[in-house]
Amino acid sequence: MAAESDLEPATRQLAGLVRAVSDEQLAGPTPCRDYTVGDLLSHIDDLAMAFTLAAAKDFGDVLDRAPSPDASRLGRDWRERIPRRLDALAQAWRRPAAWEGMTRAGGIDLPGEVAGQVVVDELVLHGWDLARASGQPFDVDPELLRVCGEFVAAMSAPGQEESRQGLFGPVVEVGRDRPELERVLGMAGRDPDWRPA
């Protein structure tokens, strides 16, 4: 159960990764097909804001829209703005009420606990994506990896193919002897051995 997971280990690490991305890396590739590093940063920026509002049940236009990452919208202050938003995200999900009742994100109504699992999934997977794309080390909190793994496994079960659309790519086969993070990455449609060309 994901209820009341502390997001701060993931948001703190992701904030550090964001700050360390160079301007020269913005146009580079990422493990997310069709996303440049700049697009991925735009997505992280958007999800931090949207899921902070979702935690507060602050419904509005932002929560009605599906994400549309676009590096051209980053602006000049992204190295400061995105970490601030990530910190606000962690704070918002510290409140037990964030995990209760119903909320909305990306135009979809869902239980608060499920929204919490989604945000853990986003932080872990996109943290790895950004680290790998920008050549930085990545370490994952074991509890958050467990929550992410449970969510990804549920979305990878037979019959979930339609639900995976837009969230994950096709499952990448990863040996059972590989570390847990790599197995989760494979279930989420990522090649754990991916490197920028």
3D structure, described in words:
The chain has a domain at 8-138: Four Helix Bundle (Hemerythrin (Met), subunit A) (Up-down Bundle). The protein has 197 residues and is mainly α. A two-stranded antiparallel ribbon has the order 1-2. It has helices spanning 8-20, 37-55, 61-64, 78-92, 112-134, 142-155, 161-164, 180-187, and strands spanning 102-105, 108-111.
Which bin fits the share of residues in helices?
40-55%
Order of helices and strands: HHHHEEHHHH
Number of helices: 8
Q: Approximately what portion of the residues adopt beta-strand conformation?
A: under 5%
Structural class: mainly alpha
Specify the CATH homologous superfamily of the domain at 8-138. dinb family like domain
Biggest sheet strand line-up: 1-2
By CATH, the topology of the domain at 8-138 is Four Helix Bundle (Hemerythrin (Met), subunit A)
Keywords, separated by commas or semicolons:
2 strands, Four Helix Bundle (Hemerythrin (Met), subunit A), 8 helices, mainly alpha, 197 residues
Q: Outline of this structure?
A:
By secondary structure, the chain is mainly α. It is 51% helix and 4% strand.
Write the layout of secondary structure elements.
Elements: H1 8-20, H2 37-55, H3 61-64, H4 78-92, E1 102-105, E2 108-111, H5 112-134, H6 142-155, H7 161-164, H8 180-187
Antiparallel strand pairs: 1-2
Helix pairs in contact: 1-4, 1-5, 2-4, 2-5, 5-6, 6-8
